[in-house]
Write a structure and sequence with these properties.
With 274 residues, the protein is α+β, with helices and mostly antiparallel strands. The protein contains 12 helices and 6 strands. It has a 4-stranded antiparallel β-sheet.
């Protein structure tokens, strides 16, 4: 799940597919299996595994993972290790050459076969939708230009540069021009910070200005702003129902694997034993 940045960004939703590859494809496992042989009821999340998770997240998201991000990644890795060991205990590795990822998938399938989804009627589904409205609303989108200053970027020089741009006056400031079309608001917040998005919300059209961002001041001209569009339940209720199924199954699967995992002791290198 982690190699694709778009899937990382969906981690908070915990889609079912997160269980499939996180352990086998992403993280090396030989050192983990070796460390668990002395005590099969202990799962060691090694320093190497933690570093690999951190590096993959940083490569995909272009930022360091927060403590919350790391917890989600290592929880998923631990869940897959539990599935793997439970699958081995059930003999699901027999006759399988690709071993780990297939054992995890088989163990997941066995676990899910015993899960019964609760029933939900249309009023209940609509209430579920209303609680997650932002997930379905079309976000505000922005077209803007950014003049990336090359060289002197002191506040005084940037203000003088902006004034020159707005009056077509001559300027010796060098800059690279970047154009952005249809950037959704969430993307702006993630890339530039909430102050940047708020400033664009209030910015006049076709006027250069200095806008704060999470990495310093930026010279920006807003060209178009498309307001958000609120989703309506009736036209998309089938898709909402599928999302409810996926999310509910993911939650119940998480609970099932955590229940199975209670017989294991998880130890993260560099931290006190859990």
């Amino acid at each position: 799940m982690i190699p694709n940045p778009s899937l990382i960004q969906r981690a908070a939703r915990e889609p079912l597919v997160h269980f499939l590859l996180l352990g086998a494809v992403i993280f090396g496992v030989d050192h983990v299996l070796e460390s668990g042989r002395e005590n099969p009821q202990t799962i060691v999340v090694s320093a190497a595994t933690q570093k690999e998770a951190r590096d993959i997240f940083k490569a995909g998201m272009q930022r360091e993972p927060s403590a919350s991000d790391m917890k989600k990644l290592l929880d998923r890795w631990t869940d897959n290790e539990v599935f793997y060991r439970e699958g081995l205990a059930l003999g699901l590795d027999r006759g399988d050459t690709t071993i780990r990822e297939r054992v995890i998938f088989k163990s997941l399938s066995v676990t899910q076969s015993g899960i019964v989804l609760p029933k939900i009627d249309e009023p209940g589904l609509k209430a579920w939708f209303e609680q997650r409205h932002a997930r379905y609303d079309a976000p505000a989108r922005y077209d803007f230009l950014e003049a990336v200053v090359v060289g002197d970027s002191t506040p005084q020089s940037i203000q003088a540069f902006v004034q020159a741009l707005n009056t077509d006056a001559a300027t010796e400031t060098q800059s690279d021009l970047r154009s952005f079309k249809g950037r959704p608001r969430g993307n702006l917040v993630e890339s530039y910070g909430p102050d940047f998005a708020k400033a664009l919300d209030a910015a006049p059209l076709n006027q250069w200005q200095v806008v704060p961002s999470s990495t310093g001041q930026r010279v920006v001209r807003l060209e178009a702003l498309k307001p958000p569009i609120e989703a309506r339940f009736d036209p998309i209720k089938e898709a909402v129902y599928q999302d409810w199924r996926d999310d509910t199954m993911a939650e119940l699967t998480t609970q099932a694997v955590r229940d199975m995992g209670r017989k294991y002791t998880v130890r993260i290198e560099g931290e006190d034993a859990k």
